[in-house]
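hey
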């Protein structure tokens, strides 16, 4: 079912209410997602992106009900990942010679995934495609946001930026626009999307945002590839990206830990007390790692100025849950954030040192040598944990 964006521009995507993980099992999507495809009907008819492969047949049937496939003059693929290009094989069986406009790297990714030599037309930043009626598509390369093949397309006169993965959210809704959905949920998902997918490329993003601004495009709507579209003050999400791309942090300290026999848990509780004795305004959040969603935790780390990671010692090391989470944090490439480690041990006690080393390797500034306690914390150890919390707050 198509939905009208503006004038002769329509949404023809798929709302995936049931999606709970993305990129395989790598990313949680508690609120589902959408795969947004767009049809422009001018003197030339243009299809922008498709949908994920499992919905290819459904997509093509829906497309047939809206337009004679032979009347599609151009296809634009802003990014070759299968959630955007998955319906191409099904579609191109019907219109095999239709020109596909994409970046040079997208030709590589599309050929590599589908092993088809379609009618590719390579475009780069500033290239234009005439649609008639005084309207053009202007292409903007978005390299590494978040694949090397990514790009965006701007429709003149209607002033719509088809931004692909930039500015999106994994957020299923049958309400097409940002002003029609819950704002807290929207921005929670937008931040999670940025923290987990785009934060590693913040330096590139800062340059790309400057480049987009320099083009002086009169953007009135941002049509993303996932989630709802930004029509009410669309530049608000661009402004958020500018903020998020500049080593973002809030006044928040996050404690993330695993525990075997609750000794490390007791330390976490006392560290919070210590922080509170020094700073009653800072937001403190505590997460028991095995009961937490790791992608949600990456969002919390993204918001934090300091992260305190706890693990008991087992087999001369930290628990594998903690090691895995630190690896995930390293992939996110956080900058200008501080960290410290804590944990209990019975015999050898290496975990705290190893956590500190791993957090440093992940790009965090280590505050101190950490706090470790042998066996179950007694009253004296709990007092020391409070002092450790005070030290963290002062740092």
């Amino acid at each position: 079912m198509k939905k009208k964006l503006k004038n002769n521009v329509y949404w023809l995507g798929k709302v995936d209410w049931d999606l709970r993980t993305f990129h395989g099992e790598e990313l949680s999507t508690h609120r589902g997602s959408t795969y947004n495809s767009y049809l422009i009907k001018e003197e030339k008819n243009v299809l922008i992106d498709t949908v994920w492969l499992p919905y290819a047949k459904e997509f093509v049937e829906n497309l047939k009900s809206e337009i004679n496939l032979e009347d599609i003059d151009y296809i634009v693929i802003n990014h070759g990942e299968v959630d955007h290009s998955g319906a191409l094989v099904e579609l191109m069986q019907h219109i095999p010679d239709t020109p596909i406009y994409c970046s040079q790297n997208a030709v590589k990714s599309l050929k590599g995934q589908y092993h088809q030599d379609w009618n590719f037309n390579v475009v780069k930043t500033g290239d234009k495609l005439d649609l008639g009626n005084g309207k053009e598509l202007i292409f903007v390369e978005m390299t590494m946001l978040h694949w090397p093949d990514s790009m965006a397309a701007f429709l003149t006169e209607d002033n719509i930026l088809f931004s692909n993965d930039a500015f999106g959210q994994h957020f299923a809704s049958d309400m097409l626009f940002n002003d029609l959905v819950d704002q807290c949920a929207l921005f929670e998902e937008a931040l999670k999307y940025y923290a987990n997918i785009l934060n590693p490329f913040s330096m590139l993003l800062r340059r790309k945002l400057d480049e987009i601004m320099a083009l002086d495009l009169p953007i009135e709507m941002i049509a993303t590839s996932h989630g709802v579209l930004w029509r009410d003050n669309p530049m608000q999400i661009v402004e958020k990206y500018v903020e998020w791309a500049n080593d973002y942090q809030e006044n928040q300290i996050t404690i993330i830990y695993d525990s075997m026999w609750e000794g490390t848990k007791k330390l976490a509780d006392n560290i919070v007390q210590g922080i509170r004795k020094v700073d009653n305004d800072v937001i403190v959040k505590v997460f028991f790692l095995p009961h937490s969603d790791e992608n949600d935790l990456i969002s919390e780390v993204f918001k934090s100025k300091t992260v305190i990671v706890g693990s008991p010692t087992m087999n001369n090391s930290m628990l594998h849950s903690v090691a895995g989470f630190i690896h995930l944090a390293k992939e996110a490439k956080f900058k200008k954030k501080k960290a410290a480690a804590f944990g209990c041990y019975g015999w050898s006690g290496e975990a705290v040192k190893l956590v500190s080393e791993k957090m440093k390797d992940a790009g965090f500034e280590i505050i101190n040598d950490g706090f470790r306690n042998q066996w179950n914390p007694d009253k004296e150890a709990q007092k020391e944990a409070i002092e450790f919390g005070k030290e963290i707050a002062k740092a």
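The two ends are 55 Å apart (CA to CA). The chain has two domains: 3-244, 252-394.
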